[in-house]
Every structure is written in C-alpha cells, then in structure tokens.
Amino acid sequence: MNTQSKQPFHDSTVTPVAASGVSITDPFWKNYMELVRNHVIPYQWEALNDRIPGAEPSHCIHNFSVAAGREKGEFGGFVFQDSDLYKWLEAAAYSLMWHPDKELEARMDWAVDLMAEAQQPDGYLDTYYIINGLENRFTNLRDNHELYCLGHMVEAAVAYHQATGKDKLLNIACAYADCVSAIFGTGKGQIPGYPGHEVAEMALIKLYHVTGQEKYRDLAQYFVDQRGQSPLYFAQEEAAHKRQKGWDGTLGYEYYQAHEPVRQQREAVGHAVRAVYLYSGMADVAKETGDESLLSACEALWDDITQRKMYVTGAIGSSQFGEAFTFAYDLPNDTVYGETCAAIGLVFFARRMFELTRHSRYTDVMERAIYNGVISGMSLDGTAFFYVNPLEVDPLACQKDFHKSHVKPQRQKWFGCACCPPNVARLLSSLASYAYETDAKTFYLNLFVGADIHTDVGGGPLTLQVETRYPWDETVTVRILETAASAWTMAVRLPGWCRDARISLNGEAMDLTASNLIKNGYAHLTRQWKAGDVIQLHLAMPVERIAANPRVREDVGKCAVMRGPLVYCLEEADNGPDLHGIYLNQEPDFTVEERPDLLGGISVIHAKGRCLTEAGWDSPCGDSAFPPLYQPYQPPVLAPKDLTFIPYYAWANRGLGEMLVWVRI
User: Fold this and answer.
1) Can you tell me the distance from the alpha carbon of 284 to that of 290, in angstroms, rounded to the nearest whole number?
2) How large is the average pLDDT for residues 492-512?
3) Does the annotation count 56 as an active-site position?
4) Angle between helices 82-98 and 146-164 (to 10 degrees)
5) Are 107 and 164 in contact (CB under 8 A)?
6) In the predicted model, is pLDDT for residue 153 greater than 50?
7) What are φ and ψ of residue 144, in 5° steps?
8) Is residue 419 among the annotated active site residues?
C-alpha cells in the first residue's frame, strides 16, 4: 500500500451541504425533484419487480427473493443486477431527506429486510453467486461485478442512514465490506485483486466518513494503489481460469483502466463509466491522504477528458464498442455512445476535483453535464430513458444501419442493463450536494439552484435563500436570513460561459476587477454578514454560436447553439425533415421566446437560416425514374428558412423524428 502522509490538502476541507438542510424551490429543478419523488422512484420500483408492461424484465427483486429462500428459481438478468436495487435505495433515501414519506420508507425497509435474509454468515452478499454457487465467488473480478455491487450497496447504506438514522442497511454494508477487507490485500492468503468495474473506491471513503473506521479508507486506498501493478492480477486470474485476455481481446486492460498503475495514467482510456468512477475514487483517496501524485494524475486525466474527449453536452465515451473512449478529438455525433451514466460519473469526478482545488473549471463542467448530458437521459414525464445520448439522429438510420443500432431515436421504458435510470434518479435526488458546499469559513455557490438553505459557516448557523429562474433568466438573488457574528466568505461561481457577469451587494455594484476578489473563477465576498444582506448576480445570456476545435473532423464548418448553460438543438417537430441540409445564417438574428406551454416550459431560440433544395437534381436521369446520384458540381441552391431551436435535454418528447446539434454555417 502507498504510504503517503495521511494529511488532507487543506486545513478545512470542502464538503457538500447536507441534503436534509436544503429545500429546493426554483421552478426548473423543483419540477425534476418532484418528478423523481412522485413518478420516477415509484416507476422504478415497479420495474425492479417486473411489473412494467412491455418493458424488459429486471429480475432484480426476484433474484434477492431466490437468494433469501423466499421463492424458488434461477438467477435472471446481468451479473450486476443487484446494483439496480442499491441505486434505487440511494435515490429514495435522498428523496426522504427533503420529503419524508412513511410509505416509501416502509417499502425500503422491506427491501432491506430481504437483503438481510439473503446475506451470508460471513457478510458476503451477491445474489448471482449465492444462487449459482458460492464456491466460485471472487474468481472473476474482471467481469463479474461483485465489488461494483458492494460499492453501490455502501452508497445506498450511507444515504439511508443519513436520511433515517436507521443502521440495519449500514450494518449489512459494513458486514460485506468487512468480508472483502479480510479477503483482499497483499498479505498471506489474501487475494491481491481489485474491482473490474470501479465504484467501491469512492463508496468506501463514504463509509469511512460515516463510521470512522479507518479500515474502509485503507481498503479504498488499497484498491487504488493495487490497480495496474505488476504482476497484473487480471492476467493471473485469466491464466488460472483459462479466460481470454482483456475485453474482447481488443481493448485489453485499458478497458478496465488496469493497464498501468494509476499514478502513471495520463490519458483517459477504456470504458468511460468505469474510468470516471475510478478517477472519482482516486480523487477521494487523494483528498484523504494528501497524496500529490494521485492529484497530479487526476488533473492530467481531467484535462485529457475535458479538452480532447468531451462532447459539447458534457457526454463522454464516443464509441459503442466497449462503451469507451477512443482517441483525442474523435467525437462523432451520430454514432456517439455518450452513456448517461458516464455523464453522471463525470459529475462525480468534477465535484471531487473542485473539493480538492476550489476551482471553477471543475464546477463549470459539472454544470454543463448536469443540464445537458444527464437530464437528457430521462423523458420529461420520468417514464422513459436514454442509455445512449446522440447529438444527431435520423430514425431510419437507427433502424437500418447496424453501426447506429445502439442509438435510439426514442427513450425506452426500461433496459435489461438498467444502470442509467436509477443513476439519474439518485443524482437528481441529491442535487443539493452538488449545488452548495462549505468549509469552515466559506459558502460555495456552485450551481444556481433556487432553494432555502440551512447549514453552518463561520462558527455558527447560516440560513439563506437563493431565488432564480435560471437557466432561463439571467438573475440570481441570494438573501442572508441568519448568520454567525464572525466574518465569513460567500464564494459565487462566475461561469466560464458568461462574458458579462455582475454582482451587487445590497444594491451597490461591486468592482469585480478589485484585487483578490476573484479567485479560481469564484467571486469571494468576505465580510461580517448580517441578516437582510442581499447579493444579486447578473449573468448575461446572449445566444452564442460555439465552434469545435478544428481537429474534431465531424464539426468542421458547423456550430452548436448555446444560451447560458444549455446546449440547443434542431428537432424535426419544429423544422421538418432533412436537418442535415440546414444552414445557419452568418447573421442569424437570434431571438429568445419563452414558451411555458411547450415541453414543460422552456425558452426556444428562433433564428434565420437556409435549407438545401433539390433544384438541379429534381429531374429523372435518362430512362430512370430517379434523379442522378452524381453529376458535375454546381453551387447548391439554398432557400431561406426560419429555424427553431429547443434545449437539447428536451428532445425526443414529441414523437419520432430527426434531431441535430451541430448545424452547418
């Protein structure tokens, strides 16, 4: 195990404001929170119990019932099916923190009791091996997800303990973690392995924080330190059980981020979700241990993702093959994978990097991913989901072209591999912990989410109110309702997308060029605050045309349209078919229109453009009934066209049709 000094990077670390101390009030996110509580969580419970007509079966509760001896049967679904229940429990727990619900809590307790019945005497709990043979447990760490399921169990247990004070689920998770801690390591008789699919690394740090048991922190650090070390454990495991090497023998150990020790890794490779889960765990361990070498690796990996491999929507993982990163600037729009879970994992990584550095470059990306690449994964009614989040869609191509068959032009009711729906639910239920963070003397306003907030800063209680109609409106107002007598700092993020940010304090404009006022992209307002103080932030939101780096081949000669944090797109419902033939004028005369009647209430963008016509191609060729496929070049004939853009997250909520983010100019 690495023996770096176990000292945090800062004397007072940044931590999220407890979800129980936040009541989200703004129209945009309040709607999502209520949607998750009233529709998504109940819907997903029905899905876990295989009660959604026409949806792929989950088998999840069935597997636990068989493992517990309540019913007879075989294991169904994927080897990681247990994790769907754990993510559902975590989402439900966060929901309880801001809206107590005895019926939901009783349903959760029922599930916890079922888990307890299935758990083995030594703490082991994985229904796949309990049903199919415990003698084979921990023999395929590379592929079979036992430690991945442990991670999600731990995260659910911590959230439920924080929400209710009950420790039954926490005890189940601790017992499994103790089992793993005893079995894994480099000591005599231990397994020198680590997870094939990462998540346990960051989960165990949470368990350490809640229990104070250093063995959980040490286990997380062991998993990080051991990964990729020589001799490579996965290679030893393959040889022992005569399995093929690596993932499909093509991506190899890069698929698992196990190709080299983590401190040597500088390029994001392999399965995108696994990657950002690992990097999040690395950041957690770095924060706990003060390990500068881990932080350096995290910073390099972050730069590789966000500067060379991230879509404008915050989606990552461009290839369907292996759900993986490929190479720098390879960002195809119509064959993109962009798994919803990968965007969520990028949010996890972003928050942890902010906590290590207090820099807005991380919270800027966190905002981009949440408002675009994450919520696009769920329909506006919360009953259908995207696994893949494309930036260009032709429904016929999705149906007829095998290489685009993974791209769905409409969201699905459920998936056999249903990691994304409960992942969206747990992130949205815990949104407050990403929006607001504190240390001993600073309150960080990371995301502009309207809420009533109760926390502690400056040695005493802090109550404040954030009011906004963001992302539609340019104004954010913060009112101090109760505060400690001592001085403390309000740190307000100045978004990277905004070129004209202004702040006033009690009606008086502040000079943002003043020395030391802006640090790392945050305006630091330090004073002895008093009840009644009002901060107003104005973020100018003109419509912007965004260009991609010229090395992104697919986007040369095109632009994306953004307003504030939102990426916009063209949809067939507004603009007709053949979106590939649309051009945006050089002087597009953008206008913004609020449409409370459309797609749950949005602002649409109108613009002037042109569309490609078939003039010169519309006559049959010789005896053929068709126009020519090729002919001597002549300038295209373009006709004027009024264009309507909608927020990308809202596409595919009005039936089947084309969609396009990157538009010709």
Assistant:
1) 10
2) 96
3) no
4) 20
5) no
6) yes
7) -105, 10
8) yes
For the sheet with 488-493, list strands across it.
Answer: 15-16, 436-439, 442-445, 488-493, 522-527, 518-519
Task: Using alpha carbons only, give the angle 235, 239, 242 rounded to the nearest 5 degrees.
Answer: 125
Q: Which residue has the tokens 């066209």?
A: 641
Three-state secondary structure call for residue 648: helix
CB 454 within 8 A of CB 484: no
The Cα 399–Cα 396 span in angstroms is: 5
DSSP single-letter state for residue 403: G
- Nearest-angstrom CA–CA distance, 349 and 535: 29
Q: What is the mean pLDDT of the chain?
A: 94
Over residues 388-406, the mean pLDDT reads 95
pLDDT digits (tens, 9 = 90+) for 610-639: 999 998 887 777 778 888 999 999 999 999
Q: Which of 60, 149, 419, 569 is catalytic?
A: 419
Mean pLDDT in residue range 531-541: 98
Residue 2 has pLDDT above 50, yes or no: no
What span, in angstroms and rounded, lies between the C-alpha atoms of 339 and 343? 7
Residue tagged active-site, from 201, 237, 323, 437: 323
Residue recorded with tokens 């519309």: 618
In angstroms, the CA 358 to CA 550 distance is: 31
379: confidence class by pLDDT, cuts 50, 70, 90? very high
Task: Report the amino acid identity of residue 339.
Answer: E
DSSP for 91-144? HHHHHHHHS--HHHHHHHHHHHHHHHHH--TTS---HHHHHH-GGGTTS-TTTS
CA angle (255, 261, 264) in 5-degree steps: 100
pLDDT at residue 418, rounded to an integer = 67
User: Across-strand partners of 660?
Assistant: 392, 570
Q: What is the mean pLDDT of residues 321-342?
A: 96
Say which DSSP state 493 is in: E
